[in-house]
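Hi V.,

Quick status before I head out on leave. The structure for the redesign project is tokenized and pasted below; the design run finished overnight.
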């Protein structure tokens, strides 16, 4: 029977803290992007000065949002790796950053999963607590 190596609770919690911040920032950035697109295409959809202004704002914000999402993906991968979850969980973490507002709910759900896994799986800190 293969034994599973214990998780490092400190690394996992640190990784989750970074992911939590990234989730909030990504959620806000995506909401800003949606607002810009609404202004550009629905409010000022007709060609004109305002449409051009929102086009410029969109062309500046879109790459910034893309960078924020890439950071979110990297931090999600880091958390996934530290928690040693299966691939579907990684895909779910990435999906949380795609739909506006979902990253906020996904962060709360992920927090519960991290806490549940740290409570039910062996950690290095369990061994240290037992020795103390």
């Amino acid at each position: 029977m293969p034994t599973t190596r214990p998780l490092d609770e400190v690394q996992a919690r640190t990784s989750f803290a970074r992911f939590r911040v990234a989730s909030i920032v990504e959620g806000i950035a995506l909401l800003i992007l949606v607002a810009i697109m609404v202004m550009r295409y629905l409010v000022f959809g007709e060609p004109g000065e305002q449409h051009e202004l929102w086009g410029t704002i969109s062309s500046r914000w879109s790459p910034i949002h893309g960078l924020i999402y890439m950071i979110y993906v990297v931090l999600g991968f880091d958390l996934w790796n530290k928690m040693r979850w299966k691939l579907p969980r990684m895909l779910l973490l990435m999906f949380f950053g795609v739909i506006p507002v979902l990253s906020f709910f996904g962060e709360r759900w992920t927090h519960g999963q991290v806490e549940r896994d740290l409570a039910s799986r062996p950690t290095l800190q369990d061994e240290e607590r037992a020795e103390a």
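Above is the designed sequence. Residues 9-127 form one domain.

G. will cover questions while I'm gone.

Best,
W.
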